Amino acid sequence: MNYIGSKYSLLDFLTTTIADVTGITQGNDLVFADLFAGTGVVGQTYRSLGFHVIADDIQYYSYVLNRHLLGNTAADADPALLEHLNALPPAHGFVYENYCPAASGRMYFTDENGGRCDAIRLELNRLLAAGEITENTYYFYLAALINSIDKVANTASVYGAYLKHFKRSALQPLRLEPLPVVDGPVGEVYNRDISELITDIHGEILYLDPPYNSRQYNSNYHVLETIARYDDPQLTGVTGLRAGNDGRSLFCSRRQVERVFDALIRDADFHFIFLSYNNEGLMTPETIRNIMSRYGEYRLFTRDDYKRFQADTADNRNIAADTTVEYLHCLVR
Ligand SMILES: C[S@@+](CC[C@H](N)C(=O)[O-])C[C@H]1O[C@@H](n2cnc3c(N)ncnc32)[C@H](O)[C@@H]1O
Question: CA 316, 322, 326: angle at the middle one, nearest 5?
């Protein structure tokens, strides 16, 4: 999934640096926490390395994706159900009524794809309520729906607005494609504010990947949130944002971010803490260094646009100002 801040392309850099710093390459059921989990690519990588992964995200669609990637095994797949869901006729549910042109004028999905999304979503709820599928299987195909509907969304990339004409990929018929099943220990997944969860968990390695800037995920991915929750929200404005603004993050607030970040590091009961942040974020590298240094031994690793990977040296500070640098801040307690 094309997701703001996804670490898909940085996985090598992350896993190599984390292994170098910790000396741990195989999980052996040690706890690895991925608490701003997003698409789940980092947690899924560590599950496959044998770690017991704890994932958390404030957005419910992310919970759904991670619940599948960390909670499911091959035994939870049901190929006959997949075929059944893909063959359902379209229904006129919340997605058709609110995100498609015929009923609402909004053009996030074609009428056909919106109706097919509703049919699958309603059937999953019905099957779970009737006890005809397990919770694991429910999340298996709900995660598949989140991922598959995103592929036919008529947006530039996020759901802050829809395009005025249907682009080619949005005209393709929605087809439910299962996400991979990840080998490794079954993990734990939460849908809580990290600032509350952090005092309830502990372990060996904590990986933190907060938002860098003031772009809130709840407004950029509101359509996926509603498809995941299917909770009939009141919508507002031309773009149909969820009313009430649930899921806003203090890590996107210039005024609040230093305070909540400091409290998070203070409260984190983990031996190794890693923080991804780039050089265009709300907190400067110096601010992060100052905060993390209060709580243990601090180190910094960077990878610049040219995909070089190196430890923090004097040379590193000569990087041209217009390149984006990914920082991995490390703390050893
Ligand atoms: C940079 S993205 C993470 C990307 C992820 N590492 C990936 O590779 O897909 C930041 C994530 O933090 C989540 N988030 C923001 N504030 C949060 C909070 N207070 N508690 C939990 N999650 C939060 C957002 O919903 C978003 O999914």
Answer: 55
